[in-house]
Design a protein that fits this description.
By secondary structure, the protein is α+β, with helices and mostly antiparallel strands. It is about 50% helix and about 15% strand. The chain has six helices and five strands, in the order αααββαβααββ. The N and C termini lie far apart (about 30 Å).
Length: about 130
């Protein structure tokens, strides 16, 4: 089932829950369970936008966007308390794309905890 959902969502495609239901011929609870599992495993992410929730495959991390001194500064900021990616980008004077790449990399390495609140990434000390 999970493979069918991933096959439905191509690399440059965004889908709604209804697209998953129709494309995989499943009920809403099954589509929600599959989506939740794929989000939890990092195979899907929520598209940040207002309105209908859209899902996509995560964009590959481009660490060329990351300034070398950014990671230690992020650790210092989240030591004070939870921070959103946008807040960190503003405080550390970097682009949101560079901050997202850095945060994803740090999360995958286990040096930062990231949770999703809706479509907002919230960062905490690991």
């Amino acid at each position: 089932m999970l493979e069918r959902v991933l096959a439905l969502i191509g690399p440059d495609r965004q889908v709604q829950e209804k697209d998953i239901m129709d494309g995989c011929a499943v009920t809403r609870p099954v589509a929600r369970a599959a989506t939740a599992m794929l989000l939890d495993q990092g195979h899907l992410e929520i598209v940040p936008q207002a309105g209908t929730t859209l899902y996509r495959r995560p964009v590959p991390i481009d660490l060329t966007l990351v300034p070398p001194d950014l990671m230690p500064r992020i650790v210092q900021e989240v030591a004070v308390g939870p921070q959103t990616v946008r807040t960190l980008a503003g405080r550390l004077d970097t682009s949101v794309a560079a901050m997202q790449a850095t945060v994803r990399s740090m999360h995958e390495a286990g040096s930062l905890s990231v949770t999703m609140v809706g479509a907002t990434w919230v960062c905490r000390s690991a």
